[in-house]
Amino acid sequence: MLLILFKTTGWLAAQTPEALLRGLCAVLGDLIFFCLPRRHRLVRSNLHHAFPERPSGWHLAIGRESCRRVVETGLLSLATPFLSEQRLRRIVAASPELKELYAEHAREPAATLICSPHIAYWEVQTAKPLIIHGKFPEFGIIFRPLDNTAANDFVTASRERFGMKLLSRKEGFVEALKILRRRGFVGVLFDQNAGLQGALTTLFGRVCATTELPGLMAEKFNARVYGIFPRRLGFWRVEIDAHRITHDGTGPAVTFGLNRWLETLLRSDDNLCASWLWAHDRWRHQDMPAKRLRLEAKRNLLAAELAVRDLDQLPRRTRIWVRLPNWLGDVMMALPLLRALREARPDAEITLVGKAIFLPVLETWGVADRLHALPERGIGYYTHFRALRTAFPDVWLLFTNSWRGDLEAWLSGCPQRFGIVRQRKPRPLLSHAYRLPPSFDEQGHHQVKLWEDFLRHFGLLIAPNFTPFSTQRTAAEKKRPIALIPGSENNPEKRWPVHHWRALIDALPEETFSLFGTRGDGAITARIATGFSADRINNRAGKTDLESFARELAGCRALVTNDTGGMHLANAMGIPLLGLFGPTNPVRTGPVFAGSTRILQPPGCPPRGGWSLAALPPESVASALRQVLAAPESSLHSRLTVP
Question: Quick one: CATH architecture of 318-457?
Fold first, then answer.
């Protein structure tokens, strides 16, 4: 049936006037581009990644024309068996460079590789014997056979019509080597996705898997290497051109040279750029969900390519967007994993999506390439995320567990949306999920452990980095204040009683203190400060934003705090701290960064919490605080171990 379809379509195309075919190709190409959403996004995303500096209108025009030329190419390929040699000579012409290539070979025969990219009309190269004067050399083309035997026989006969020989990728490799040994020509399509068998290189700065076959054959036979391509002159009118690829005789030099030649070709000529097959998944190998958060291939040539291109690091072209949690403490706990992600995917441009109040601190620490603030809630909230479709994110990691976060990612058009799914809590808007094992005890493991398992499910192999973002001098700075955070905006039960805080201050008469908190904590801090002199207590509650709070916190010798986001911020900054836990579970939400950290619970309190903080005596806190202030920072490493 497929063979009948091929023959019928080819015969009709050969008999149809070209003016009518031109209109048909335009209509079918537009249908592919505009009416197939996945293909439309792939074409525009590929162009946006390769040419981020070009306007969206240019991407649209090039993508649309590329789809039209794919249809032109397909119809001409099917029509070729039914076209006369005279008509084919009107369709195909040879450039002076192509003629010189064959003239040189006639004068000095040598093993020659003809490497072709997926530029429209690539199959008309089988008609070259019609346009090259003199005896045509032995020429074998490595190709991928069709699964349908009858259709494959028809296509093979069509392509071999003028004397070239097709060599199946399954059985023809040995024959290709024999042809090169006889100083003949071998043709290879070199720009397809090579999958796990390929070598990691870059194309347009974006990591991809590339075949090393041309490089291996060139190295073995010291072959000449040419890049060859049809230049579209009009509908069913092409000129075949060729460029010599210089190399030093090694396989990687050929592999890199071909990719760089193709980049230069498409960057320098919009006509050729519109002819490349932007609708194919050239970079798809690196988007396998189970391996998405690492780089993996049979061979990794990235370091060698960076040296050749004189670059210090990979261009960051893979776009990973991370939806941050909604609470400050959770944001801080996610940072060790974001550091691991940066190390695992050095080619990724990481964009953090979160509350605007968090972003200035994160920008200071340089944990991402881009920061994207959540918009104000209202009628424009979700249209904002719909508009992100033109940013073409590749993958969206969700540290949130809400329908709202999932909808944000889905509206952006991101094809891969990763999140955690718990039992009886479906998340249908995720594209791929880490399903939490029923045996995983969330109360017995730290939140970071859960997130680490989540990211490992999608390929992360690098361990979280718990090094603080900055270190602070402690004992040497006797005049610096001690920070206190007595509030807890989201849960009053986590607050140590006011009279305990006052007792702690009384127990250290030689020290000064700074009280921090939100505007809502002002009543608590005012009660604590009442009766103390202004030179001992500086009440800063409600007077700082997050950025200035972090700056003032960095000027303190130590922090005593309830279980709050500020505790995790101080921990991330390397500030010595005492965390007071009673009803909440430090096993699950305790500070994680390495440094001077102590967790204090009421006497007899279970490790997972559940007791009132009122049972934690001020004397115990004062004693622990004196130890922190007296000891060198390097000796205070009682960070809670993450299971």
Answer: 3-Layer(aba) Sandwich (3.40)
